[in-house]
Amino acid sequence: MSQNEPVQSHRTQFLTLFFIILLSWSMTVVLGPMVSIIAKDFGLTNETNIGNISAAFLLVGGLFAFVWVALENHVAQRWQSSRKKLLMIATFLAALGLLLTGVARSFELLFTFQMLTAIGFAAITPLSYSLAMDFTTPENRAKTFGLLDVAASIGVGFGFLLSGILVDFTIWNIPFVILGMCGLFLVQAFLEFKEPPKGASQVKTDRYQFTLTRGSFSLMLKKRANALIVLFNILLYMISGSISYYFIRMLVNDHGFAPSLATLFFLATFSSQVAGTIFWTRRADKQYARKRNGKIRVLLEGLLLGPIFLIAAYSLTFTISNGVLFGIFTILVILGTFCIAGLIAISFATLGEINPPELWAPIFSVNNLAQTVGRGIGIAVMGILFTSYGGVYQWGFAVMEGLSFIAVLFILPLFTIVPHEANTLAILLNRRRIPINPQATLPDRLL
Question: What is the pLDDT confidence band of residue 210, given thresholds at 50, 70 and 90?
Fold first, then answer.
């Protein structure tokens, strides 16, 4: 039993992180399907005012993440399990914001409570991914982050379904209340959460001082791999974020899908993405075990294969009544989605392997903000392309997928940079090692 306890404990704790990531992504999309209904309930003539709350939510969430990171670095010197405690506080704030959103009776209150939710949401990605780094070794890290990516995908689907379905049977407030109650349940689940020491996956028998300093940020900014991966993610989310945002609308507008069928088709692509994420992240870990740049190789494979299928799919002109072309379109979209799945997870894992533990949360915050910026730019560009191509989405989709080949330029240098920076990190950690005092007691000693 004693041999199994650590495995079971880590598995249970990872599930807590899995579900909080799932909840966090549900928060980001639950408002969307109900925009027109809420605007009508509030007596607003322009529903874009409600829609803009989602954009503000992502912006606040991306920027406020740095506040949580700075706070964690400050309290880590005073609190044990600082990341766990801050995640509990952040999840409670998000849950409170969701519950209050459910009782909002004006635009001003709705906006205020959604921003409170966004402030709590801001802590979840950087702190959860930082904890996930300490639950796994580098040889299994892509798979671990892939599972968190799956949680995000399920969260998006759950958020869409929750609001899209329930709003036909009940008032719009209910989805927010349900998510808020889920958040309170997760706060309780964190009470049993055992936070590993920061850097536990990197260090087994020695103690280190993992505190942010000005020198830490200087180190983060000097790493070329950090800059290349962040730029890669801006471009990748500019593409994938804009396409996922308009995908259902493209099916209805360009190909004559019924809205319900378009939603089901969208969820089918999610299934392909989940399977692809598991496949590619496991392959990335296997390649990493053979060579330090193995994850980069897998990134390149997916980046070259996926867009070929998707560009072909978006170049097809058909209506839903054409069964043959519909079948070809379906196969191409599923294959393309499968191939590009896991790219984000692998890039997150790579960032963790080239940065010291005190920089995990900050670099994940930077990467998360990069994704938010990329998605915002992509949505704006797609709107311009839609107008340019005469009110048709598919050609804009094809153009955006073509930009994936530009992203290759950010990946190729990583083949040599990542192994070099990983070796540099190993030397840095060795220099910062603090010999253990045999007489020290927990938690002064790192098991």
Answer: low
Average pLDDT score over residue span 9-14: 76
Residues 6+ apart with CB under 8 A from 198: 76, 83, 130, 134, 210, 357, 358
Same structural domain, 309 and 403: yes
Torsion of CA 180, 182, 184, 188, to 10 degrees: -170
190 plus 240 within the same structural domain: no
Sign of CA dihedral 293, 298, 299, 301: positive
Please state the length of the chain. 447
pLDDT at 41 over 50: yes
Instruction: Quote the number of domains for the chain.
Output: 2
d(CA 167, CA 164): 6
8 A C-beta contact, residue 59 and residue 372:
yes
Give the Cα separation of 50 and 107 in Å (integer): 8
124 pLDDT tier (thresholds 50, 70, 90): very high
CA distance 413 to 225: 8
**For range 38-60, the mean pLDDT:** 81
Work out the angle between the directed axes of helices 173-189 and 5-29 (0-180°, nearest 10): 160
247 and 191 in a common domain: no
CA distance 54 to 58: 6
Please report whether residue 30 resides in a domain.
Answer: yes
| Residues 160 and 53 sit within 8 Å (Cβ to Cβ) | no
Q: What digits encode the pLDDT tens for the residues 393-427? A: 999 999 999 999 999 999 999 999 999 998 888 88
268 and 306 together in one domain: yes
Residues 327 and 183 in one domain: no
In the predicted structure, residue 60 carries a pLDDT above the cut 80 = yes
Spatial distance between the Cα atoms of 131 and 357, rounded to a whole number of angstroms? 10
Does position 125 have pLDDT exceeding 80, yes or no? yes
Assess if residue 413 is contained within a domain. yes
Query: 309: domain range?
Result: 213-447
Q: Are residues 105 and 173 in the same domain?
A: yes
